[in-house]
């Protein structure tokens, strides 16, 4: 099985990486790639800045499901609202729901309980792929989560188990237990690490890979190295200042790639730096590049 086929079979793909490495554009490109291969894909965005719609040239989601291209949808989600939705679903009686949602105890609990918001996001993903989505997209084949940056990525993955350990009964405890099993199942969920070939992003990626092994007994599906300076051509003039700068940046990239492969022997996809403004054209170009590399991985 090549890696592209492997990714096509997953129900949840979690894309993480250090801030500033192009994690969102890689998430959008993976979603587009899977969608063009016949999968119905929902892109989940949790960043309050909500920028995926700009990459896909759609209207802002605002919490709604927005269609980008055939088979590809986008939704910006607010974890706090997901918790409130769970309260509405379980209590049903409007008067009781309003009383709970307006309660200071509820607000303090949902804001301060460790792992609860993260668990709610994964819970929504699980419900969607199990066929409990809204009318406009009842059951996507896969969800691609543009997850928080590396520093928070591990805590997100650990959150459902944390909630399950603390809250052992009731709907939240039961939900957390199901979500933990969902995330731990390598046939349903996978992690994609995005980096650039620079010192700090590579260092954080190495730490993340090691943490995934130690804490979760798993490894990324692939490490995607984004915005890699292409090699210079034979006709490039070494005396030109721009060429020298390009050569130096490429040399740094090669050094950092060597550091990365010292601790990662798994699949590696290299995406070249492209002279394309952020938007659908860049997303499409990266998707095509990934398609070629993932087929051969």
Distance between the termini: 9 Å
Which percent bin holds the helix content?
Answer: 40-55%
Q: What is the CA-atom radius of gyration, in angstroms?
A: 20 Å
Would you give the CATH topology? Rossmann fold
What is the correct CATH architecture? 3-Layer(aba) Sandwich
Strand order, biggest sheet? 3-4-2-5-1-6-7-8
Q: Summarize the main sheet.
A: 8 strands, mixed
> How much of the sequence is in beta strands?
15-25%
Outline of this structure?
The chain is α/β, with parallel strands linked by helices and 297 residues long. It has helices spanning 3-9, 23-36, 52-56, 79-91, 94-101, 104-112, 116-129, 150-166, 170-184, 199-216, 241-263, 280-296; strands at 12-17, 41-45, 65-69, 72-76, 142-146, 189-196, 222-228, 268-272.
SSE topology sketch:
Layout: H1 3-9, E1 12-17, H2 23-36, E2 41-45, H3 52-56, E3 65-69, E4 72-76, H4 79-91, H5 94-101, H6 104-112, H7 116-129, E5 142-146, H8 150-166, H9 170-184, E6 189-196, H10 199-216, E7 222-228, H11 241-263, E8 268-272, H12 280-296
Parallel strand pairs: 1-5, 1-6, 2-4, 2-5, 6-7, 7-8
Antiparallel strand pairs: 3-4
Helix pairs in contact: 2-12, 4-5, 4-7, 7-8, 7-9, 8-9, 8-10, 10-11
Detailed description of the structure:
This protein has 297 residues and is an alpha/beta fold. It has one domain (3-292): Rossmann fold (3-Layer(aba) Sandwich), CATH 3.40.50. The chain is built from 12 helices and 8 strands. The protein is elongated.
């Amino acid at each position: 099985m090549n890696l592209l086929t492997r990714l096509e079979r997953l129900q949840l793909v979690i894309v993480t990486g250090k801030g500033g490495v192009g994690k969102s554009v890689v998430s959008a490109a993976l979603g587009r790639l899977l969608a063009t291969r016949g999968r119905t894909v929902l892109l989940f965005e949790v960043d309050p800045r909500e920028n995926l719609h700009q990459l896909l040239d759609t209207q802002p989601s605002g919490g709604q499901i927005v269609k980008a291209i055939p088979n590809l949808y986008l939704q910006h989600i607010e974890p706090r609202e997901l918790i409130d939705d769970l309260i509405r679903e379980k209590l049903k009686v409007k008067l009781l729901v309003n009383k709970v949602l307006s309660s200071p105890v509820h607000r303090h609990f949902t804001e301060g309980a460790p792992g609860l918001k993260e668990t709610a996001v994964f819970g929504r993903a699980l419900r969607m792929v199990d066929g409990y989505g809204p009318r406009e997209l009842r059951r996507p084949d896969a969800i691609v989560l543009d997850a928080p940056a590396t520093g928070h990525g591990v805590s997100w993955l650990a959150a459902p188990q944390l909630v399950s350990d603390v809250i052992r009964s009731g709907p939240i405890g039961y939900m957390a237990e199901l979500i933990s099993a969902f995330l731990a199942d390598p046939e349903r969920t996978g992690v994609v690490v995005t980096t650039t070939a620079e010192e700090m992003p590579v260092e954080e990626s190495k730490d993340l890979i090691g943490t995934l092994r130690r804490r979760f007994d798993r490894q990324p599906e692939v490490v995607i190295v984004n915005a890699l300076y292409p090699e210079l051509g034979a006709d490039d003039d070494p005396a030109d200042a721009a060429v020298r700068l390009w050569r130096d940046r490429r040399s740094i990239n090669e050094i950092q790639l060597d550091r990365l492969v010292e601790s990662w022997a798994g699949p590696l996809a290299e995406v070249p730096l492209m002279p394309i403004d952020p938007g659908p054209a860049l997303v499409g170009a990266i998707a095509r590049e990934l398609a070629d590399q993932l087929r051969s991985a």
